[in-house]
Amino acid sequence: MAMIPAERQAAYRKRRRETDNGARRLDVMLSTEVFQALRRIALHGNETLETVLDRLVLAEDDRIGRGFDDEEFRAYGERALPGNRRP
Question: Which residues contact 35 (CB under 8 A, 6 or more apart)?
Answer without folding.
Answer: none
